[in-house]
Amino acid sequence: MNPSAEFVEQGMSPQNVKRASCMSVITLAYQSLGVVYGDLSTSPLYVYKTTFSGKLSLHEDDEEIYGVLSFIFWTFTLIALVKYIFFVMSADDNGEGGTFALYSLLCRHAKLSILPNQQATDEKLSTYATEASADTWQSSALKSFFEKHPRFHKVLLIFVLLGTCMAIGDGVLTPAISVLSAVSGVKVKITGLHENYIVIISCVILVGLFSLQHHGTNRVAFMFAPIVTAWLLCISSIGIYNIFRWNQHVFCAISPIYMLKFLKNTGTEGWVSLGGVVLSITGVETMFADLGHFSSSSIKVAFTFVVYPCLILAYMGEAAFLSKHHEDIQRSFYKAIPESVFWPVFIVATFAAVVGSQAVISATFSMISQCCALNCFPRVKIVHTSSKIYGQIYIPEVNWMLMCLCLAVTIGLRDTNMMGHAYGLAVTTVMFVTTCLMALVMIIVWKKKILTAVAFLLFFGSIELLYISASVYKVPEGGWIPLVLSLIFMAVMYLWNYGTMKKHQFDVENKVSMNRIVSLGPSLGMVRVPGIGLVYSNLAIGVPAVFGHFVTNLPAFHQVLVFVCVKSVQVPRVSENERMLISRVGPKEYGMFRCIVRYGYKDLQQENYDFENRLVSGIVQFVETEEESASKLTSESFGEFESTAFKCLVDPDHPYTSSSQKEKMVQSTCDIQAEVAKTGSERPENTQLKHESLRILKAKESGVAYILGHSHAKAKKSSSIIKKFAIDVVYTFLSKNSREPDVVLNVPHTSLLEVGMIYYV
């Protein structure tokens, strides 16, 4: 697979940067330290402490400490370095990474998407391109299997959502365990400090962290890289110091023999303790998820040459200290710090914990935004916090929800060991989901042999299942937290997706017949008043039921009618010049058009420009080029009387916006009038085209009205009690408390008309 296109944070698109110079790679690698590796680099705060909790603390001899270090070294090397750096980082989706990127690749190559309104024209998007290599018999067989069993499309989505929900749980646990672990270090110097004060200080830091989210990470991002860099240098230097002072033979623990001895000597207790070892790789998924903000090469350079050696030295140094100080097993990290540098390291550790928490919180915002795009989460307010750095967002509802959950975990558990048990289960589940998706990507996308994919799945999957089994054993001791959180989020996501898909099914089954529309004549059997009417619908094809319901109660409509469908496409982003598809509905004299507005799962479905004028500009361009393009465009049947879809190539830098654009609009109207007067004796079809353009522009000057359907779902009387509760109570509650479509679409309230409808599921 070709390396992903790379782009810097200053808003450059992946397609604009093909090759990064050595200097730019180093610069990006430095910047990635603060954003990507904050969570991973703070793991030494609690790994040994959590691993040697419980009954394993009774076996504190050197051989067992070496065994734990051996497990940490090989886990960190095989999972973080080999799996993620050498394999997973290559499976990007147009430069984007994360679980949704893998899912998107599979959806495009194997037609697995369950998103409604998918059309053949979507495959012509520049970011939709799939590899031209021929399918192998393995990939063909797997695609055929998914094609014959559509229910597995839903199973795959649920599997992806499971990983996403566990990652959201990670967003709750990371700030709690990182901040509490960092602050608890003060007890090493102030031994009489009560635990309640540690919890209060941690809660104050957490409240401050979440309260600053609305400013956006770009305001403090310049501090992130220096803090994490200073932290990595501190812990690696202390590690080297401890190795040479306490035990220079600790390097022997690299031998895998110590892992076998550890399991043999400790038995079940050693196996259960692996739930603490896995905390050493918390944050590796962030490397892949944040690929879109940096480049693959920069993240690989930062990890291979900075993060990996620094953390390995830190773990070795702490093991060397423990080999001579068995009694400090629960306070080993801060006890291993030399007296002279304790307080500076403590301050840096606290800042590093905050930075690591910030990265996970931002990733949670991104995941929720992607779930909204896939119709798997209620509509929430999404704020773009940076005009320069694409993708930095803030979601108020999610932010305060995370804060409350973090405070509840911190106050309720008060113990980093119990938090670690919960944390380990969430992390390992997300990694296992990635491994399974990667195996499918190898067969379907990369066209590798099935034996290669199976070997990958068995090797890395077995390691992750080993850690999952150890974490599951700790469910009663804190591991239940991510399970409960993920089940709640899964229920919300599945129910919202179910209700949304049922609404779309209702719209498809109740759309107005085009034959009926045509039979009414150009006036559509009602009064056509000056202006443009925008009817928002979930349908990319056909006339929505909301239109029929509207004209039944109010038999008048605008001179120009446009059906607008805002939909998501299974790509990360859609460029501005490919955003809109314009087509004509019915004969020309009916004055009806359709506009399909397309977004990727990383795009924000909020327009920052004047949508009205851009739309009118696109329709005028469509009308004026329709005749010229008729001989070039292939006829595409939509099953009705719609004409061929035309990709509206509106220049995003020169839309009809602001007051100056109104002058341009008037000027263009005068130009068309003048041309119509001049061409009165010319070809009648040209005159007709100019008249139609003039009619559309005049309709725009008369005003634009927005017509939205306000649908309410109700369970059928024959439904079970559980379904009635799910639809009539839970789904209705989510619908009433989610963002209204007019707010998401940025519709002006003075021009809004809502049509109420009820659909039964």
UniProtKB/TrEMBL annotation:
Residues 28-518 form the K+ potassium transporter integral membrane domain. Belongs to the HAK/KUP transporter (TC 2.A.72.3) family. The keyword Iron does not apply. Residues 530-759 form the K+ potassium transporter C-terminal domain. Potassium transporter. GO terms for molecular function: potassium ion transmembrane transporter activity. PANTHER family: OSMOTIC STRESS POTASSIUM TRANSPORTER, POTASSIUM TRANSPORTER 1. NCBIfam families: kup. Keywords: Ion transport, Membrane, Potassium, Potassium transport, Transmembrane, Transmembrane helix, Transport. GO terms for cellular component: plasma membrane. This is Potassium transporter. It comes from Salix viminalis (Common osier). It is a multi-pass membrane protein. Coiled coil: none annotated. InterPro entries: K+_transporter (IPR003855), K_trans_C (IPR053952), K_trans_N (IPR053951). The chain crosses the membrane at residues 65-86, 155-177, 197-213, 220-241, 270-289, 301-321, 341-368, 389-411, 423-446, 453-473, 479-496. It is found in: Cell membrane; Membrane. The lineage of its organism: Eukaryota, Viridiplantae, Streptophyta, Embryophyta, Tracheophyta. Its main location: membrane.
